[in-house]
Every structure is written in structure tokens, then in C-alpha cells.
UniProtKB/TrEMBL annotation:
Family: Belongs to the SLC12A transporter family. K/Cl co-transporter subfamily.
Membrane topology, from the record: Multi-pass membrane protein
GO biological process, one term: chemical synaptic transmission
Known catalytic reactions: K(+)(in) + chloride(in) = K(+)(out) + chloride(out)
Entry GO terms, CC: plasma membrane; synapse
The entry's keywords: Cell membrane, Chloride, Glycoprotein, Ion transport, Membrane, Phosphoprotein, Potassium, Potassium transport, Symport, Transmembrane, Transmembrane helix, Transport
Upper lineage: Eukaryota, Metazoa, Chordata, Craniata, Vertebrata
Coiled-coil stretches noted in the UniProt entry, renumbered to this chain: none
This protein's name: Solute carrier family 12 member 6
Domain SLC12A transporter C-terminal: 586-704, 718-752
PANTHER family: SOLUTE CARRIER FAMILY 12 MEMBER 6, SOLUTE CARRIER FAMILY 12, CATION COTRANSPORTERS
MF (Gene Ontology): potassium:chloride symporter activity; protein kinase binding
Entries under Pfam families matching the protein: AA_permease (PF00324), SLC12 (PF03522)
Gene3D superfamilies: Amino acid/polyamine transporter I
Length: 758
């Protein structure tokens, strides 16, 4: 596929969604044109920085997960991949809830199963309707995806056409409103907005057969349907009922009133600040249009952000593109520019055409239950209602199609063992088990039943994904990784760092507690993969970062010798191997483990006598044996094996060459040559004496352990014991330091020191 069909249109379809039609007008009315413009601009800039991946990689199934896991390693890839999967799954729930809201509120309100005459319980009844219908829609969509994804792809073009037609209808309506605004009157009591769902006329009275009688509005605010002996609400008595134009039009100048924010707590009445009103409180009547949720700038950021996700649609199809390196950046940037223009221009158009109280009316109660953005559209509000319903259903199907494949890609990589079952699929490749798990998680989002509560959840997961995409790109660029060759000429690592910072800031701006929960989930998955030991190794950037940090630290160590206060034994432990390449004195490693307690440098060395070309295999086997023994004895260090013609030469090579730069040993640990007096082979004591001489010549400390086989193991527990220190040779305090270090180990914490000075 080319740039247009393979990247541009899929990105448009994934970016435009339910928030544009159901919540953008409310965001503009609540935040004001200026702050709403800032919210949209920040969110668009945030996603536009995550463009580098995919233009040089053949991104297989899994999309951004594939990119992150191959760039940052399986631990980061698994953690962020699962977060991205959860975000995509909750996106399916959000789209389904949006479709149900359109269906029950604007298309067929009578289809509601649960109803309540009590206005206080009406919201709870609506949530139950959302749960029932949402579950039914979810089951239906899962069946469609289960039967075959080809049906979803066939309808994709139709759903995209619905989106485009709906957006064009908004622009056509905005242009038409400049000379012929649509007639949508809004009934006001003083400066308070009244719901038009239950009133017949916007007046306190009405004329019937040349007689003035009370209207329905009178009955809502007075305790009697008669003029006489009626006790009415004080605010109702002192204020007039007026009607204002809900859509004043582009030339009305209403934008000056809509520039500024109007954040309100839950339960407050939506008011028009510029309208006249008597300074009387009155009672709270449910015929007013009320705020259904406490609003703030941070809440609106979390609700709006899902409407700009979907930029990975091109990267996810990298394998199907004719020229991915060209198509992905061009198509994605064009899609982002198009959607950003649509969102930003709609913010201005909504503020310039629609009355502020109508913008803040989330469910269109003031305009007889019409979809607010539909009141502006031309030729009919039904164009937006039907178009948004089908586009939302299509986006939900796309999410239910993509999420199982993402989970299947993670499971097939086998980096998380308990997900292995979700890597299986039907004969045609459809991930059945992954689809069932996706449906179960999406059902949790549907049970929440509120679009405004689900949106911030998936915002966290998408923001975390984009954050790590930017981190991966910046890291690969700064480390100059050979396989990282983005050809997009305008890419720079500073853009990735800026995007990473924006993502992190937006996470905590929109919801700090959701951000912490998302990070904890990702951290737990990361540690789990690390603990299990990922079987895959893709040459990740974290290893490159570790190498760069190690190089920097080693160069710093070269600047000078350590101060006396920082001196501690950095060990070179010399082990002797028998004919079967087994360690003769493994308790030397026990001693080293208890002496070091994981701090500082420990190098375990040994020598194999022979020719390197002939004994290379033996050297590898011996090295593995020593590493396993080090792991068993909990020695954190390195293994160094040397093949030499003579044992003394090999030991000399180890003492001279082990370590790197400033990270070198300063102490040699070796065993006492047992039975050297009775041995007929003089090489035993000569090797020992030679080692002492080489160590002295290298100005290193020497620790010789005699009867090391009696040294307590790491698993032995002693309630009490003694360490006798015979300080005979004045060695600068070395003999005083060793018992102190040994006492730091848990086995010797309760031991006592006895000193003998001479």
C-alpha cells in the first residue's frame, strides 16, 4: 500500500472519534476558547513527537510494542506493550460507551430499560442502561471480530466516510450560520438555563381560548397550578423568563463571551454571566440544566487526550507498505496536521457560533435533547448523529481487532510466561483466546459506564506508551546505535526529549493518581519479566546506555587513586581446579562472599595449564562451572580464566592484567598449600612462593586462607562465635578492617572480636 491508503487514511480513522462529536463542544464551553485551544495544541504536539519509529524498521505485528521491545529490551517492551494493550482495550470500551450514549440519548431515548421519575435517580438509571446495552454491543462486536477480521476491514471505508461527511457537515453549518443561523431557542430564567425536555412554552403563562393559564414551567416552580394562592420559588418570582438564540452564528460576536473558562462543581446551575438576574438565591430545581461532573483543566486534558491517539496506525502496518521509510513519516505527519487543523478550527468555530450555556450543556438538555454539535451542522443534526454513531462503532471494532493481535505478539515473544496461552490462534491466524481476554477487560470499562471516567484511564496507558517511544528514539540517537538509522531528515533527539517531557507532564496533569497506578503496573510487569529472566535478547538500548555509563565511570576512576577513607579490599580470588575441572576449595568463594557482601569488585580467576588453541573448550566449561558456583555462593563479580603453558605464568598474568582501568583489584586471595611438606612435587610450594613474590611486586595486599574448608558456609547460622585477631605485623590497619567487614555479614553479626596485640 502507498502513503494515502496505507498510512494517511488509517491514521485519520483512528484519530477522529467519539470525543470530537460528544465532548469537544463541552470542553470548549467549560475551558473557554483560549484554554481549549491550549489543551488541543498540547495534546497534538505530544503525539506528533512520536514519529521516528517505523521509518527504518520492518515493524511486525505489535506495532509500537515491537519497536520499544527491540529498542529498549524485553523488560521495557513487555511492560509498555501490556500498558498499550490495556489502553487499546479500554479504548474499545470508551467507543462502545460513546455509541450507546448516542443511541440512548439522541437516537432512541425510549429504548432505555431503566427509568426513574425521580430526577436524583435518573443518572443512576442511565448508568445501568449503559451497562446493559454496552455489554450487548460488546458481545455483538466480539462475534463480528471472531467470525473474521475481513468483515471489519470491509466496513472500515464506510465508517471513515461517515466521519468525513460529519466533519464536512460541521464546517458547512458554521459557514451557513454566518448569514442564516439555525433556530434553536434556549429558555432562560434570569441568567439560569432551563431544560426544554419537559416544558411546552418558554413562558410562565400561555394563552388557551383567549384565557391566560399557567404553563408547565409555572407548575415546576409553584406549588399550585392556579394563579391564586400559589407559593412560588423566590428566584422564579423575581426573574423573567426569556428566550435566547442557541446558535447565534459566526457573525454574532459570541466568541468574546466564550473566550474564558467557566469551571463549576457538580450540581451547579449553568448560567449566562452577561444576562440580567435578580440577586435572589431560590431553591435548586431540577428543571435547570445542571453540571453533572466537577470540572477542571486537568480533568479536561484527561478526557480529550484519547481523541488524538491513533498515530501508530501507519507504523503498525509497516510490513504492508510499499516504502515504509517514506510513507510512515509523510502519511503520519499529514494525518496529524489534518486532524490538528480540524480540532483547532472546531474549537474556534464552536466558540464563535454557539451560545456558551449550550456549549456547557453536555447532553443538549437546553436544545430539546439534540446533540450540541448537531445543532450547528448542515443540512440536519441527524447527519452528525448517524455519522458519529457509525464512526464510533467502527472505531470500537478496530480496537477490538487490534488489541488481541498486540497481546498475541507479546505472548508469542514468550517474555511473560503466564501469557503464553494467548499466543495460540485459529487455523486462519485469528487470536481467539486473546480476543476473549480483551472482551473481558473491555467489559470492566463498560461496567464503569461513564465516558468521562474511562477516558482518563486509557489516556494514562497511551501517554506511557508515547513516553517510552520518545525515550527509545532519543536513547538510540544519543548512543549512535548502528542499527538506528531514521531517514526522516527533520528528526532530532531534542524533539523526542521534549515529547517525553510533555507526556510525563500530561500524565500528572490529567490525573496524578492514575499516573502513579499506571507506573506501578508497568514497574511490576518490568520486575516480573526481569525476575523470570527474559529468554529473548534483541540488543536493547538500555545495555548500550549501561556500557556508556560504565565507560564514563571507568574514565572518572582513572583521575586518581581512591582516598584512604574509601579504601576497601577489591578481591582477586585465585581458585585451583582439579583434573575434572571442579573447584578444589569452594569455601574461598564463601569467604569472599561474606567479606564483600556484594560491595565493590570481586574477580574470580583460575588457570588451566596447556595450549589455548587445544584447551579452549575446557576453558569455557571451567568458566561455566565457576560461574555456577559463584551464583550458588552469592558472589557478585566476574570470572576470568587463563590458559597458560605454566601455572605460575598464568597466575602472574591474572595478577597483572585482571580488571579494567581504575576498576582493578588491590587484594589477592588464595589458599594455603596443604601438605606441602609431605608432597613430593615441589611445584606446590614454589607456585605459592612465586605468587607471593608477584603480589608483592605489584604492591597488592595478600590474604592467605588456611584450613578454608572449615570456614562457615552462607547457610549456616550461628547464634554466637568469636573472631580472634592477632595483630602482629603493623600492616596499616588491614588486619583490623577484615574482621569488621566480616561482621557486616548476617552470619557473623552476633560474633565477638578478641584482639591480641604485640
Amino acid at each position: 500500500m502507498g502513503t494515502f491508503m496505507g498510512v494517511y487514511l488509517p491514521c485519520l480513522q483512528n484519530i477522529f472519534g467519539v470525543i470530537l462529536f460528544l465532548r469537544l463542544t463541552w470542553v470548549v464551553g467549560t475551558a473557554g476558547v483560549l484554554q481549549a485551544f491550549a489543551i488541543v495544541l498540547i495534546c497534538c504536539c505530544c503525539v506528533s513527537t512520536a514519529l521516528a519509529p517505523g521509518d527504518h524498521l520492518n515493524v511486525a505485528t505489535g506495532g509500537s510494542y515491537f519497536m520499544i521491545s527491540r529498542a529498549l529490551g524485553p523488560e521495557f517492551g513487555g511492560a509498555v506493550g501490556l500498558c498499550f494493550y490495556l489502553g487499546t482495550t479500554f479504548a474499545a470500551a470508551m467507543y462502545i460507551l460513546g455509541a450507546i450514549e448516542i443511541f440512548l440519548v439522541y437516537i432512541v431515548p425510549r429504548a432505555a430499560i431503566f427509568r426513574s421519575d425521580d430526577a436524583l435517580k435518573e443518572a443512576a438509571a442511565m448508568l445501568n442502561n449503559m451497562r446493559v446495552y454496552g455489554t450487548a454491543f460488546l458481545v455483538l462486536m466480539v462475534l463480528v471480530v471472531f467470525i473474521g477480521v475481513r468483515y471489519v476491514n470491509k466496513f472500515a471505508s464506510l465508517f471513515l466516510a461517515c466521519v468525513i461527511v460529519s466533519i464536512l457537515a460541521i464546517y458547512a453549518g458554521a459557514i451557513k450560520s454566518s448569514f442564516a443561523p439555525p433556530h434553536f431557542p434556549v429558555c432562560m430564567l434570569g441568567n439560569r438555563t432551563l431544560s426544554s425536555r419537559h416544558i411546552d412554552v418558554c413562558s410562565k403563562t400561555k394563552e388557551i381560548n383567549n384565557m391566560t393559564v399557567p404553563s408547565k414551567l409555572w407548575r415546576f416552580f409553584c406549588n399550585s397550578s392556579q394563579f391564586f394562592n400559589a407559593t412560588c420559588d423566590e428566584y422564579f418570582v423575581h426573574n423573567n423568563v426569556t428566550s435566547i438564540q442557541g446558535i447565534p452564528g459566526l457573525a454574532s460576536g459570541i466568541i468574546t463571551e466564550n473566550l474564558w473558562s467557566n469551571y463549576l462543581p457538580k450540581g451547579e446551575i449553568i448560567e449566562k454571566p452577561s444576562a440580567k438576574s435578580s440577586d435572589v438565591l431560590g431553591s435548586l430545581n431540577h428543571e435547570y440544566v445542571l453540571v453533572d461532573i466537577t470540572t477542571s483543566f486537568t480533568l479536561l486534558v484527561g478526557i480529550f487526550f484519547p481523541s488524538v491517539t491513533g498515530i501508530m496506525a501507519g507504523s503498525n502496518r509497516s510490513g504492508d507498505l510499499k516504502d515504509a521509510q517514506k510513507s510512515i513519516p509523510i502519511g503520519t505527519i499529514l494525518a496529524i496536521l489534518t486532524t490538528s487543523f480540524v480540532y483547532l478550527s472546531n474549537v474556534v468555530l464552536f466558540g464563535a457560533c454557539i451560545e456558551g450555556v449550550v456549549l456547557r450543556d453536555k447532553f443538549g438538555d437546553a436544545v430539546k435533547g439534540n446533540l450540541v454539535v448537531g445543532t450547528l451542522s448542515w443540512p440536519s443534526p441527524w447527519v452528525i448523529v448517524i455519522g458519529s454513531f457509525f464512526s464510533t462503532c467502527g472505531a470500537g471494532l478496530q480496537s477490538l481487532t487490534g488489541a488481541p493481535r498486540l497481546l498475541q505478539a507479546i505472548a508469542k515473544d514468550n517474555i511473560i510466561p503466564f501469557l503464553r496461552v494467548f499466543g495460540h490462534s485459529k487455523a486462519n491466524g485469528e487470536p481467539t483466546w486473546a480476543l476473549l481476554l480483551t472482551a473481558a477487560i473491555a467489559e470492566l470499562g463498560i461496567l464503569i459506564a461513564s465516558l468521562d471516567l474511562v477516558a482518563p484511564i486509557l489516556s494514562m496507558f497511551f501517554l506511557m506508551c508515547y513516553l517510552f517511544v520518545n525515550l527509545a528514539c532519543a536513547l538510540q540517537t544519543l548512543l549512535r546505535t548502528p542499527n538506528w538509522r531514521p531517514r526522516f531528515r527533520y528528526y532530532h533527539w531534542a524533539l523526542s526529549f521534549m515529547g517525553m517531557s510533555i507526556c510525563l507532564a500530561l500524565m500528572f496533569i490529567s490525573s496524578w493518581y492514575y499516573a502513579i497506578v499506571a507506573m506501578v503496573i508497568a514497574g511490576m510487569i518490568y520486575k516480573y519479566i526481569e525476575y523470570q529472566g527474559a529468554e529473548k535478547e534483541w540488543g536493547d538500548g538500555i545495555r548500550g546506555l549501561s556500557l556508556s555509563a560504565a565507560r564514563f565511570a571507568l574514565l572518572r576512576l582513572e583521575e586518581g587513586p581512591p582516598h584512604t577513607k574509601n579504601w576497601r579490599p577489591q578481591l582477586l580470588v585465585l581458585l585451583k581446579l582439579d583434573e575434572d575441572l571442579h573447584v578444589k576449595h569452594p569455601r574461598l568463594l564463601t569467604f569472599a562472599s561474606q567479606l564483600k557482601a556484594g560491595k565493590g569488585l570481586t574477580i574470580v580467576g583460575s588457570v588451566i595449564v596447556g595450549n589455548f588453541l587445544e584447551n579452549y573448550g575446557e576453558a569455557l566449561a571451567a568458566e561455566q562451572t565457576i560461574k555456577h558456583l559463584m551464583e550458588a555462593e552469592k558472589v557478585k563479580g566476574f570470572c576470568q580464566l587463563v590458559v597458560a603453558a605454566k601455572l605460575r605464568e598464568g597466575i602472574s598474568h591474572l595478577i597483572q592484567s585482571c580488571g579494567l582501568g581504575g576498576m582493578k583489584h588491590n587484594t589477592v586471595v588464595m589458599g594455603w598449600p596443604n601438605g606441602w611438606r609431605q608432597s613430593e612435587d615441589a611445584r606446590a610450594w614454589k607456585t605459592f612462593i612465586g605468587t607471593v613474590r608477584v603480589t608483592t611486586a605489584a604492591h597488592l595486599a595478600l590474604l592467605v586462607a588456611k584450613n578454608i574448608s572449615f570456614f562457615p558456609s552462607n547457610v549456616e547460622q550461628f547464634s554466637e562465635g568469636n573472631i580472634d585477631v592477632w595483630w602482629i605485623v603493623h600492616d596499616g590497619g588491614m588486619l583490623m578492617l577484615l574482621p569488621f567487614l566480616l561482621k557486616q555479614h548476617k552470619n557473623q553479626k552476633s560474633w565477638k572480636l578478641f584482639w591480641a596485640l604485640q
